[in-house]
Structures are given as structure tokens and as C-alpha cells.
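Lecture notes, part 5. Sequence design as translation. It can be helpful to think of inverse folding as translation between two languages: the language of shapes and the language of residues. The source text, in C-alpha cells, appears below.
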């Protein structure tokens, strides 16, 4: 399997969900079962789990693994997902996977429910967001990778018996990573919408963390007064000022996951993507203002872990501006 296996998985889940339109299991040639394809796609994602596995874990041959992840940095980074066929945990494609799975759970909830997979999809989302909450637990830090890909790729073994170093990479004031921070924010914001009706406390926790992570990478054009006014109900002014300063002084592309997950498209698409999900989750005008006044968009023919414009444009085509019946305009 290539390093882009996770991207192919999310596409498969999306296609399978589409095929379940209206709760009816559509067969293209009379023999192919899209419900089975959907189930197996989600099981594939479950197979990639790292950490202490639950008793009802469907791939019975998988066992606990990576239980010391984060120890080298004195932080708990147990959990999350391995990437493709190796034993590295990359934050950038992992967060994109969770965002895309949450998107499916929001827009195809009834279809997933009819297929008997809604609970499994939600469990898959939570498996990722639980890890992101750990990865973003320290102020002005986001842990973005566990494992040494060079050494890991020299020894293809089951994660249960791996002996390769579990090195940890992070972004902070000295090593910014706008793309990864924005995608992680999008993942938690979209997931908060998934759990809003069933676990309000968890949903709010995800949304508040998504706001914090997003402030690490909001463009410096936002005035301190504007940010203070909006976030006064959620954060202290001192905390807000520190986050704004971090965004202003430490914005940039993170190359630590290269050559495996380099950001070729830059960070403007992730900023737009994160702001879109935060607006959908909160309906706060600060995010819509960024989208309509500051965001940079583009015409592209691809939607992937690295390029999010098309996804944001689809979401925004369904969002109307206040006092206006037309969708958000990104043509500026």
C-alpha cells in the first residue's frame, strides 16, 4: 500500500456513502454490495488503530501497540492511527482523514445508520479526536508525528512487535506549521458537530480546542480588539493575547513530515478549510469575516490531504451570508 492509502480510504468511504443514498443499498451491476464496501472501508480504518484497543475491536487479529508513544517527550501520545501500511503516526493526513469521516457522518448520517455503521463511524472519529486532544494539550504546542519513517520503512512488521524509535515531532513558536494546525482544528470542529446531539460535553470540548488551535494560525490581519471581543466569553484576555501573538509571529509551513507528507499547496487552503468548519460549527461571524474578506481561494480539480479548496467550496456553496440568500462569494 502506498503512503496515500489513507487518502484512498476516505474517498472509498465517501463513494460508499453516496451509494447508500436515501437509505437504499444501490447495486450498480446487480451483484456489487456497496453496504459491504462501506463496512470494509471502516474496518480498514479500525485496522490502523494505535494504542489500547477496545474489547469490541472488529479486526480480532490486532492487539495493543504503541503504548509508550510520547514517552520520549514526557507526553501521552498513545492512540490515533498509523499511516497506510507503516507504523508512523502523521498528524497531517490523520487529521484530514478524521475531518473527511466527520463530513460523511454529518451529511450521510441516515445512510450510515441504515447500513448499521453510524456507531462505528463515530467511534472512528472519536479515536482520532481523542488523540488530537492529547496532541494539543500543551499551550502553543501541537505534536504532529510519532515514529521515525526512515527507520520504520526499513522494517515492515506488525505494530505490536515494532522496535523502531518512537520519535516525536511538534510545532511551536520556533517551528510553525500552519497546515497541520489548521487541519487539526478542522477535524475537531467537524467532529464537534457529529457529537453535538449525543455527547454535548465532548462536543464542546472539541470545539473549544478547535478554536484554540485555530488561533495559533489565524492571519495577523485580525485586530486584537476584534479577537478580544469575540473570544471574551471563552478565553481570558491574557490567554487570547498570547495566542494572537503566537499567530502573528510564528506563521509558516512545516516541513518536518517531508518527504512523505510535504505541503505542496501551501497553507491558504487549510486556513480556508478550517475557517469554514469553524463557521459551520459555531456560526460566529469572525470566521465568516475571514472567509469573505481575507481567505485566498483557487480553482482546482483535486481534493486531497494536501489540497482542500474544493472541499471548502462545496461546503460554502451551502452557506448563505447573513441577510443574503446567495452563497458565500469566494471570487475576490
Amino acid at each position: 500500500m502506498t503512503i496515500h492509502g489513507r487518502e484512498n480510504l476516505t474517498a472509498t468511504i465517501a463513494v460508499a456513502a453516496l451509494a447508500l443514498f436515501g437509505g437504499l443499498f444501490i447495486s450498480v451491476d446487480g451483484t456489487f454490495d456497496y453496504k459491504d464496501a462501506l463496512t470494509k472501508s471502516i474496518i480498514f480504518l479500525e485496522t490502523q488503530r494505535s494504542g489500547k484497543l477496545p474489547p469490541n475491536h472488529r479486526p480480532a487479529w490486532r492487539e495493543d501497540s504503541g503504548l509508550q508513544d510520547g514517552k520520549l517527550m514526557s507526553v501521552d501520545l498513545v492512540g490515533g492511527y498509523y499511516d497506510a501500511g507503516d507504523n508512523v503516526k502523521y498528524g497531517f493526513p490523520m487529521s484530514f482523514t478524521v475531518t473527511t469521516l466527520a463530513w460523511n457522518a454529518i451529511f450521510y448520517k441516515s445512510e450510515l445508520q441504515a447500513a448499521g455503521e453510524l456507531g462505528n463511524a463515530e467511534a472512528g472519529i472519536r479515536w482520532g479526536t481523542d488523540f488530537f486532544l492529547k496532541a494539543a494539550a500543551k499551550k502553543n504546542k501541537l505534536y504532529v508525528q510519532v515514529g521515525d519513517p526512515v527507520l520504520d520503512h526499513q522494517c515492515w512488521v506488525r505494530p505490536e512487535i515494532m522496535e523502531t524509535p518512537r520519535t516525536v515531532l511538534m510545532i511551536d513558536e520556533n517551528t510553525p506549521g500552519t497546515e497541520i494546525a489548521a487541519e487539526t482544528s478542522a477535524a475537531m470542529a467537524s467532529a464537534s458537530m457529529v457529537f453535538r446531539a449525543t455527547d454535548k460535553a465532548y462536543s464542546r470540548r472539541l470545539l473549544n480546542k478547535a478554536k484554540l488551535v485555530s488561533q495559533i494560525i489565524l492571519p495577523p490581519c485580525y485586530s486584537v480588539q476584534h479577537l478580544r471581543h469575540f473570544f471574551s466569553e471563552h478565553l481570558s484576555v491574557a490567554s487570547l493575547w498570547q495566542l494572537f501573538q503566537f499567530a502573528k509571529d510564528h506563521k509558516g509551513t512545516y516541513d518536518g513530515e517531508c518527504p512523505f507528507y510535504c505541503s505542496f499547496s501551501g497553507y491558504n487552503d487549510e486556513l480556508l478549510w478550517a475557517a469554514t468548519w469553524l463557521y459551520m460549527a459555531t456560526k460566529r461571524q469572525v470566521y465568516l469575516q475571514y472567509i469573505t474578506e481575507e481567505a485566498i481561494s483557487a480553482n482546482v480539480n483535486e481534493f486531497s490531504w494536501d489540497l482542500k479548496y474544493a472541499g471548502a467550496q462545496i461546503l460554502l456553496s451551502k452557506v448563505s451570508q447573513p441577510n443574503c440568500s446567495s452563497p458565500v462569494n469566494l471570487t475576490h
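The translated text above is only one of many valid answers, since several sequences can fold into similar shapes. The chain has one domain: 34-317.
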